[in-house]
Structure formats: C-alpha cells, structure tokens
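Ticket #4471: structure export looks truncated?
Reporter: QA, pipeline team
Priority: medium

Steps to reproduce: submit the single chain below to the structure queue and open the exported record.
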Amino acid sequence: MRTLIVDDEMHVREELETLLSETGEYLVLGTCSNAIQALRAVKAMRPEVMFLDIHMPRVDGFQFLGMIDPERMPLVVFVTAYDEYALKAFEESALDYLLKPVQAERLARTTEKLKRFLREGSRPAYESPSLERIPCISGHGIKLVDVAEIDFVRSSESGVHLVTDKGEFLTELTLTVLEAKVPILARCHKQILVNLRQIDEITRQEASSLIRTRSGKLVPVSRRFLPQLKERLLIR
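Actual output as written to the record:
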C-alpha cells in the first residue's frame, strides 16, 4: 500500500516507518513534518494510505484534512498519544486510529482493515472544520494568514496566491478547497475567489464587471459567476 507518514516528531516518523516496512504490506513514499510538506506530498505522490498525527503545532491533523482535495484524499489512520483525541477521531469518521507508541499487534489489525477498504474501493467521508487560517509558504516555515485579511485569491501557473494588504502569499491549497472550506470566499472568475466582506463596489462594463475591494484593489468578475455572486450578496 502506497503510504505517507505525517508527524511533527522525527523519532515517531522513523519508528513508524520502520514498523510499517517490517510488515511487508506498505511502501512508504515519504514522511512529512508539517501540513505544507504533506499537502505537496499528497498532490505529487497520490498515496493510498496516510498515517496522520492529530496533535501537531500550527495546523493539527483535523484541520489538515480539510485542506486536501476530496479526489486526492487517501485512507487516513490517525496516530495520537492522547485518548481524547482518539475518541474525537472516531467522531470525525476516521477509518482507524493508533495510540503512540504504536504496537505491532495493533498495527496488524489496522492493516487488515486498510486492505479490506482498498479491496472494496470504500472511501470514508472525513468531516473537518471550516478554515479560519490558511497555511502559506514562508521561508523555511509556515505562515498562517487569517481569512479575514484576504482581499481575493488568484490561481496562476505559479500557484495559488492569497492577496492581502500585507502582500501576496503562496499556498498549497487549491481554489476548490478554499471555496468549500472558507465560507466568506466566493467564486467571481474561473481563477479567482473574492472575500465577500472586502467588496466595496461592483462596476458593470460591456463584456464583464469589476469588483473594487475596500483597499482599492480591482478584481474581474466573469459573466458566468456574476449571478451567483449577486445572490450571495443579496443583490437583485
């Protein structure tokens, strides 16, 4: 099974990788220490299975699940040192969970469950909260941008960029995920989401329309998305 390990502790990643390899049932594609690394890995490697730490700093396991495109979602096994998190994992419809330190005997039961799900083609639905802060690439770390600070989000060949008064920030999240998980972002163009709370004015033109944000930025609106945008804004 093509597998990804996500945990902020190096020794846990190493121990789990060794344990998985010893079973002969897993091909460990890689290990990640944070959400940005893991998002890149999911997009590039398309793992079938992911062992995910729940209690991570900055972005925890539950929040991270909400950042993955549904069509790329692997089968998820939560890994935790805390029983209360394990109970919440089941509330979040997790396939299974493992308590740290992971025991070989317990892992064997999880492995059989994973094999059955893959054989049957079953896909559990993972519930996750709306996103309030978006992880962005910042040097060697992660910058979390509050959704309230976003004027609009644009997608281009160079990636997905959050545009704010403080500058532009590159994120690994897709427009599809941002539209689904951030209620105040609305589609106004095939490649643009706008923050409904930052709209100051919509100006109609012959072929299209323009949004002016509170900070004075101009954002194009395509005819395709104008009706649903007006509906969101309660404009007749």
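Status: closed, not a bug. The export was complete when the record was re-opened. Leaving a note from the reviewer for reference: The CA atoms of residues 116 and 122 lie 8 Å apart.
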